[in-house]
Amino acid sequence: MTVVTELARTTIYRLLRADILSCSLRPGSQIQERELIERFAVSKSPIRDALLKLEEQNLIEILPRKGYRVKPVSLTDARELYDMRVILERECASRAMDQSDEALMSLDAYRCGPDSADLTDWIVYNRHFHIAIADLCGNARLTAVARDVIEQFDRLTYTSVSLTGPKGREEFVGEHVAMIDAIQHRDRRHALSLAKDHVEGAKRIVLETLEHPTIVP
């Protein structure tokens, strides 16, 4: 495989993954090779390589003689991801409190949500907040795993915040602020409790939604 093809495959994979996780490509929507060839102006080879990698990550599925489809989020997937999220969020928050006061002050950047009312901007803000805590944990491997799981949550975050509306987003930001306060004050017990409650609250909204296919495909 040439360097150019490898770069094309990597770029296409990253862009499609971002589209899927941000719900620009909605769960259940079909993907056609010819449309991707036109979009990226490349041959079939890097397109198929990128799609294969996305299939391996359980983000798309092959439809025989029909192309590809963005894989819907199942109840099982959601439950497993939330179980992982609770474990990772609590561990990252706990380890973050071992960092310097200056390092913990960096979390102040997330005390306010985005000025824009655009849902995509809010999802990006939410992702960056949780990744910021993971980055402070002091363990590169734990950070990498947490980042991967957090990025996969964009689709679930889209589901939860799109239903709760602006008021719900304000409440989520308030929970972020409470977590920041607890971490900066090194109140480990309170911080871990808040982290768990934050994840569990979103989990209840999403699981209830996924049980109603008329709302979420």
Give the SSE map.
Elements: H1 3-21, E1 30-31, H2 33-40, H3 44-56, E2 60-63, E3 67-70, H4 75-96, H5 101-105, H6 119-135, H7 140-152, H8 154-184, H9 188-210
Antiparallel strand pairs: 1-3, 2-3
- Give a count of the beta strands, DSSP E runs of length 2 or more: 3
Mean pLDDT: 87
Number of helices: 9
Biggest beta-sheet profile: 3 strands, antiparallel
Report the span from N to C terminus: 38 Å
Helix content: 55-70%
Q: Taking strands numbered 1, 2, ... along the chain, how are they ordered across the largest sheet?
A: 1-3-2
Structural class: mainly alpha
CATH fold name of the largest domain: Four Helix Bundle (Hemerythrin (Met), subunit A)
The CATH first-level class of the largest domain comes to Mainly Alpha
Low-confidence stretches: 213-217
Short description:
The protein has 217 residues and is mainly alpha-helical. The chain has nine helices and three strands; from the N terminus they run αβααββαααααα. It has a three-stranded antiparallel beta sheet.
Describe the protein's architecture and organization:
This protein has 217 residues and is mainly alpha-helical. It has 2 domains: 3-70, Winged helix-like DNA-binding domain superfamily/Winged helix DNA-binding domain (Arc Repressor Mutant, subunit A, Orthogonal Bundle); 75-210, Four Helix Bundle (Hemerythrin (Met), subunit A). 70% of the residues lie in helices and 5% in strands. It has helices spanning 3-21, 33-40, 44-56, 75-96, 101-105, 119-135, 140-152, 154-184, 188-210, and strands at 30-31, 60-63, 67-70. Strands 1-3-2 form a 3-stranded antiparallel β-sheet. A hairpin with a 3-residue loop joins strand 2 (60-63) and strand 3 (67-70). The longest helix is centred in the last third of the chain and has 31 residues, at 154-184.
